């Protein structure tokens, strides 16, 4: 059961300003490099890009990813770093992240035990088609979110589900990560 959909941010919170005109048209920023596009997408990802849908449509007018519409698991991470891919392709960026825990749609937090200094990684390839950047590499990857962003998302959900004990417990557990 995939219940979570995209975006937790409002447009003005995106790491790069994506302006919207009165007619609703989006003005995409001019990125200087593939790395800058991936960095922008990952910053938005860690802020909860794929948790709600309210502004994902506007974001995807500038940067599209090959992710799917919803997931029943999310990965709470500490941060990410970018480096070069092994293939040395100019259009490829290696994203490394440190997972802290998994959280399912039942709000159960399952800590991830990794040896100190061990991280996970995936490659993102980027191409520009017209004015839209298309990123691939997210297709089998659940949303990666910081514990702070996940807490904010769950606190918002708590208004909808005020008596859900598992939700309240998840919020308290995430605050301790």
Structure, described:
By secondary structure, the chain is α+β, with helices and mostly antiparallel strands. The radius of gyration is 16 Å and the shape is globular. Strands 3, 4, 5, 6, 7, 8 and 9 form a seven-stranded mixed beta sheet that branches. The longest helix has 14 residues, at 147-160. The model is unreliable at 1-17 (pLDDT under 50). It has four helices and nine strands. The chain starts with 18 loop residues before the first strand and ends with a helix. Helix 3 runs antiparallel to helix 4 (165-175). It has one domain. Helices cover 24% and strands 30% of the residues. The chain has helices spanning 34-46, 56-59, 147-160, 165-175, and strands spanning 19-20, 26-27, 63-65, 73-84, 92-104, 109-111, 120-129, 132-136, 144-146.
